[in-house]
Design goal:
The structure is a homodimer of 309-residue chains. Chain A contains 14 helices and ten strands. In chain A, the strands form two sheets. In chain A, strands 1-2-3-6-7-8-9-10 form an eight-stranded parallel beta barrel, surrounded by eight helices. In chain A, strands 4-5 form a two-stranded antiparallel ribbon. The interface between A and B is large, with 72 and 72 residues.
Chain lengths: 309, 309
C-alpha cells in the first residue's frame, strides 16, 4: 500500500540503489552460456536458462548489500515465453533472498485490461477458486498516457497486497522532452502535470515515511527536472534510471533525495551487470564479485554525497 | 514495411474488422476448461491450455471471413509464463491460417530496451548465430510517451521485416481525455500532436495504398476525434477499439474510414468472444459458430454503412 517495505530495505542496507536485471546474452560470461546451451540447446530454452543462472549469481552476490532488483520485462520477452519464465523465476528467487522486486514493464491499458496487468505482475489470479501469483513482483512501472482509469486497477491491487507502482513522469532518454517537456495551455509541462497526478493518485496509499505507494520514474539524465519534481512532489518516491551507462553520475542524482537521504532509489543496470567486462584480467567466473564491487562503489559514491539519516 | 498486407486481407475478405483475442477464463465454455484442467491441472498450466483451445476454435471459425486477430498481451500475462506461451502459440496458429496478427502490448521504453521489445514481438533474436522469432506478430501497439527514440527501434524492425506498429493517439477509455485532450501552448491537443508524429514517423514506411506502416489507435468511443484525425492524418491507418462492449456502434466508427472504405480496422473482443453467452439455448460446444455469426453481423453492419471499394 506504500513504499515502506522498500524504504526499510534502503535503510537496512544503507543503500538507495537498485540493480537492474536486463540480461542480454552479450552480457553473460561464456561459461554460463555454454553450460546452458549444452543442457537445453542453443535456442530460446538454453538462452533463458543462461539468463536465469546469470541473474541468480548476481542476486546471490548483491542481496545483502542492495535492497532491490529491477528486471526489465523487454529483455525476458526477447527470449520468448521461455524468457518470460525466467522473469518469473528471477522474481521468485530475488524475493526468497529478501530483495524488493520492481518489474519494469511500463504497462498501460484501459481499465479492464489494466486490471489483468495488475493481477499478472503484482496480484493474484484465480483458477477454479484457487489464487496464484503469476509473477508476484513488489512494484510495477506504469505509463499513464491513458489517464486515471488506466491507473486505478493497479492502485486497487497495491492497496490489497501492499505493493507499489512507478508512473513514467520524465524519462531518461534523449527524446523524452519531445512530448514530456511540452507546455500545456496552463503553462505547466506535461511531465509536471503527470507528476501532480502521481501526488493525487497516491493520497489513498500513504506510508509511514511520508511517501505514498505511487512513485514516479524520473531520469538521472535530467538533474534540473529531478530537483524541480522533488520539491513539487513531496509524497512521491522516485525511481531514477540513467545513472552510469546512460551518463548520469552521483551529482546528477543528488537532487532526487530529500533531507533524510530518502525519497529516491537509483538504478544501475549495465554498470553492475557488465562490471566484469571492465576489470582487466578477471576470471569471468567471478563476474558476480565484480558486480558486487561496482554496487558498493556506486552506493559509496552516492551516500558520500547524500547520507541516509 | 507498411500495412499493405493488412489492407489486402481487408479487401480479400471485404471486412475491415479484427477479432480481439482477450480470453479470460470467464469467457471460455466449461467443457473446454474441464478438459484442460483434467489434462494439465486446475492452475496456470491448465488455464493456459484452455485459453489456447478457445482461441484455436475461434481462429478456425473466423479465419476465412475476418482478416486479422488482436491478442491482448495482458490477458496472457495474467496466466503467467504459461499464458505467455499460449500467446506465442496463438500467434503462430493464426498466422498459419493466413490471419494478420496485431499484438496489443502497448509497449514503450527507451531506445535500447525498445529494441528488445521490437525483436521480441515483431523481429528475431539471435542465439549462437541462429535467428529465432520469439513471438512473430505482424504488428504491435506502442505507447509513444517517450518520444521518437522510443519508437525508432520498432520502425527499424518494421522496415526490415515488413511489419507495422500502431501508436496510441486517442484511446477509447473514459479518462483518455485527462491528458490526451489537453491543449499544448500551440493550441493543439496532445492526441493531435501524437497523431502528427505518426504521420512523420510513417514517411519512411509508405505503402501502395497510401498508408504507412505507422498506424494510430483511436477509440470508437470518440467519433468526433476519429473524424478530425482521419482528415488530419491521411497516411495513418487506424486501429479502432471500443466497438461493441465499450459502447461504439457502426455510426461511431464510420468517420474512421476514407472514401474507399479503407484506412481503418475496427476491433471487437468481448462482442465476438462472448457471443455464445447471448444466444439462448445454444450448446456451448458451438461457441465458435456464435462468434462467427457475430463477426458476420458486425462486418455487415459496418460495410452497409461504409462499403469497401
Amino acid at each position: 500500500m506504500s513504499f515502506d517495505r522498500l524504504i526499510e530495505g534502503i535503510r537496512r542496507t544503507k543503500n538507495p540503489t537498485v540493480a537492474g536485471l536486463d540480461p542480454k546474452l552479450d552480457f553473460i560470461p561464456a561459461h554460463i552460456k555454454e553450460e546452458a546451451f549444452a543442457k537445453y540447446g542453443a535456442a530460446l530454452e538454453g538462452a533463458a536458462e543462461a539468463l536465469f543462472v546469470f541473474n541468480k549469481e548476481l542476486i546471490d552476490a548483491l542481496c545483502d548489500i542492495v535492497p532491490a532488483v529491477k528486471p526489465q520485462a523487454a529483455y525476458y520477452e526477447m527470449y520468448g515465453w521461455q524468457g518470460v519464465r525466467t522473469l518469473a523465476r528471477t522474481i521468485e528467487y530475488a524475493k526468497s533472498k529478501g530483495m524488493f522486486v520492481i518489474t519494469d514493464g511500463k504497462r498501460n491499458d484501459i481499465g479492464t485490461t489494466m486490471e489483468a496487468y495488475a493481477k499478472a505482475h503484482l496480484g493474484c489470479v484465480e483458477v477454479e477458486g484457487t489464487a496464484t501469483e503469476p509473477f508476484g513482483a513488489d512494484a510495477l512501472t506504469v505509463n499513464a498516457y491513458l489517464g486515471t482509469d488506466g491507473v486505478k486497477p493497479v492502485l486497487n491491487v497495491c492497496k490489497d497486497k501492499d505493493k507499489g507502482l512507478f508512473v513514467l513522469v520524465k524519462t531518461s532518454n534523449p527524446s523524452s522532452g519531445e512530448l514530456q517537456d511540452r507546455k500545456l495551455d496552463d503553462d505547466m509541462t506535461i511531465y509536471r502535470t503527470m507528476g501532480n497526478m502521481c501526488e493525487k493518485w497516491g493520497e489513498e496509499l500513504m506510508g509511514e515515511y511520508g511517501y505514498s505507494g505511487v512513485g514516479a520514474v524520473v531520469g538521472a539524465t535530467y538533474p534540473e527536472q529531478l530537483g524541480e519534481l522533488r520539491k513539487a512532489l513531496p509524497h512521491t518516491f522516485f525511481l531514477v534510471p540513467g545513472y552510469g551507462a546512460q551518463g548520469g553520475g552521483a551529482k546528477d542524482v543528488a537532487p532526487a533525495f530529500d533531507e533524510n537521504g530518502l525519497g529516491a532509489i537509483i538504478n544501475s543496470s549495465r554498470g553492475i551487470m557488465c562490471a566484469w567486462k571492465k576489470e582487466e584480467g578477471l576470471d569471468p567466473k567471478d563476474h558476480a564479485q565484480a558486480a558486487r564491487r561496482e554496487a558498493i562503489r556506486m552506493r559509496d559514491e552516492i551516500t558520500a554525497l547524500i547520507p541516509i539519516k
